[in-house]
Structure formats: C-alpha cells, structure tokens
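Hey,
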Amino acid sequence: MSSLKMPDINNLLIAGSLTHDPAFRKTANSTSVVNFTISSNRKYRDNSGIWRENICHVGVVAWHKLAETCHDVLKRGSSVLIDGELQSRNWRNDDGTSRSIVEIRARRIQFLDIKTSEESENVRAEEEKADLPEEKVESTDFDFGYQNLKI
C-alpha cells in the first residue's frame, strides 16, 4: 500500500459578496492584479433548533485580464461565484516580522449581480453603436418579429 500516492487536488468553488471595493494595482512588469475580500454566509440550526449564521471572510486574488475585468465591474456588495484554488504566501514586514496568508487564487469569476433586461438592452445597444462607424448606425425598416421577445 505504500506505492499509493494521494492525488494533488486543489479546487475551490465559493459564492459570496465583496466586503470592500477591489484593490487594483500593476506589478513592476505591468501585470494586472486585483485583491478583494468576500464574505460567504452559511445558515444552520444549532442543537436547540435556533437558526444561526456563520460568516466566513476570504481573501481573493485575480491576475491579468480577469483582474482588469474585476476592477471595472465589481464594487462593494457585488455578488460573485469564484472557481479557483487555495494558495499561501509568506513575506516580511518592514519591521522584520514574518507574515503569512491563505487566499483564493481565482481562475474564473462569475458576476452574479443581474441588471434588469431593459438596462442590459440599453447597454448592449450603446455598445453596438460605439463599435460601428457613424454612417452605418441607421435604423432599418426590417421587422423579423423578435423585438418583443421575452427571454
């Protein structure tokens, strides 16, 4: 049995809300990085049948394009679903004390705050207009019957 090896698995899926606005910065070689903290709540009944809530605060770090998107989209209170892995890092403070932290390194982040469909349509229409040259932004007389479709 000593030939069996434990597989290397480090996978985490967690949902929560941002406790503060994300802190965005660039490293010395211009790599984008963002750090934020989420709170993930768990409700349960204790032995006496009373509902309790356990709140877990977890640090998250995202890199590259994901960091830039988080910086643009997220703010305090935003709800997210994070797929990532746990990582630990150590450093020394200016006073010489050693510090360490365990945080989530995000691979994917799903933004859970949903805009109303009307807001989404307005944003999408503005983005489409911005992408087209000015002379091509014209209304057409074509009606395919999809304007009032509710999805």
